[in-house]
Amino acid sequence: MLEISLKAEELFEIGSYTITNSLFLSFIVLLILSSFALMFRKKTKIIPGILQNIAELFIELLLSLMDSVLTSRKKSEKYLPLIATIFIFILVSNWLGLLPGVGSFVMHKEHGNIPLLRSPASDINFTLTLAIIAILSTNLFGISELGFSKHMKKFFNFSNPIKFFVGILEFVSEFSRMISFSFRLFGNIFAGEVLLTIVFFLVPYIAPIPFLFLEIFFGAIQALIFSMLTLVFLSIHIAKEEH
What is the rounded distance in angstroms from the CA atom of residue 31 to the CA atom of residue 97? Predict the structure, then answer.
């Protein structure tokens, strides 16, 4: 049984940059999604095939969900690339980390064997980076929608002491959202990997199957939660202040 490590294991270095097993799988996910996007773009037709029908159905469902938050199809279409990218990237990352054999490929190091691949979301660095990107993106879209001065006025309002205090709390909450984002995703995915590792070690055949399907479901739920929370925060930042 491989040692369960809270920290992503180092595989090799490129110059001064360290490549971990979670980062390595992230590159694989990026390569798969990029290849699929390029292939799908070339094969898009006016009369859709099965694959294009599935993609269009997924986009329509996601747009309908975004409409319920943004209350505007125009806004939903505008911000669809951000929300869909976050959802798909986390979903594929979570599911690839659950594939049978992912943890079986090992690299021999001086201190022992380490798994060659590891689910990206089971590394706190990945989830924290994703949370920072999500929060920064929502703020940048807020600036684009309202203007720099109006957006920053939500955080630094000197018109009266109450608004100033509320603005400071809102500014601090941006950082708390990053922390809660990252630890929520990391905790759920890492706990699931630990559970599967222990179950596969103790009862390696039939018993792990229900847990595997459960983690597939949780992987999708966590991707949906992360993307929908990003959407909610986005709707807050692009909302115009009512007088």
Answer: 15
